[in-house]
């Protein structure tokens, strides 16, 4: 049965394979050559910078204000916004680490840093999506009208495209 928040659930479903890429690339460190690793890191970074970060900015601008209003608590989404800040910081760290994935081998400290960042991003994003889907979206399904949901998704779409 379709719900009012099905568009966001569908978007999350489209993002999940890319989130798995974060884990897959982290798992490959030390198992593949640096050229293949660099390709995986570049793919992970492109997903984060061009898809996930704009998605997060759209949530901050259009989804979370609606959640806060529905809950009657202006700070109800503060922890979720903090997740977005952490994803942004880890994405910036990944950008810096990308430049070190060169040459025939990766130094141990660089491999460790890269694993930490990729696994951290993977876990943080997985838990963040679970919180949205298990807590916020059912609340919105129960309390929004179809017109309110449509307006929220239109605002999210606009914010995401502005962030790209």
Which short descriptors sum up this protein?
164 residues; mainly alpha
Give a structural overview.
By secondary structure, the chain is mainly α. The protein has one domain (6-163). Helix content is 83%, strand content 0%. The chain has helices at 6-28, 34-71, 78-98, 108-143, 146-163. Helix 1 (6-28) runs antiparallel to helix 2, helix 1 runs antiparallel to helix 4 and helix 2 (34-71) runs antiparallel to helix 5 (146-163). The longest helix has 38 residues, at 34-71. It is elongated and about 55 Å long. 23% of the residues are buried. The mean pLDDT is 95.
Percentage of helical residues?
over 70%
Taken together, the total number of domains comes to 1
Largest sheet: none
- Unreliable segments of 5+ consecutive residues: none
Radius of gyration, Cα only, in angstroms? Answer: 18 Å
DSSP, total strands: 0
Helix/strand class: mainly alpha
What gap, in angstroms, lies between the N and C termini?
32 Å
Gross morphology:
elongated
Mean pLDDT: 95
User: Which range does the strand content fall in?
Assistant: under 5%
Order of helices and strands: HHHHH
Q: How many DSSP helices? A: 5
């Amino acid at each position: 049965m379709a719900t009012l928040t099905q568009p966001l659930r569908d978007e999350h479903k489209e993002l999940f394979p890319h989130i798995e890429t974060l884990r897959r690339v982290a798992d490959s460190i030390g198992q593949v050559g640096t050229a293949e690793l660099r390709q995986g890191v570049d793919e992970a970074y492109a997903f984060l910078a061009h898809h996930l970060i704009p998605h997060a900015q759209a949530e901050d601008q259009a989804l979370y204000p609606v959640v806060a209003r529905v809950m009657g608590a202006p700070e109800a989404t503060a922890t979720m916004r903090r997740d977005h800040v952490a994803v942004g910081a880890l994405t910036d760290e990944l950008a810096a680490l990308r430049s070190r994935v060169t040459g025939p081998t990766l130094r141990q400290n660089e491999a460790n840093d890269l694993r930490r960042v990729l696994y951290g991003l993977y876990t943080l994003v997985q838990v963040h999506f679970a919180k949205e889907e298990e807590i916020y979206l059912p609340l919105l399904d129960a309390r929004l009208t179809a017109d309110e949901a449509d307006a929220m998704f239109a605002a999210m779409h606009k914010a995401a495209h502005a962030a790209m």
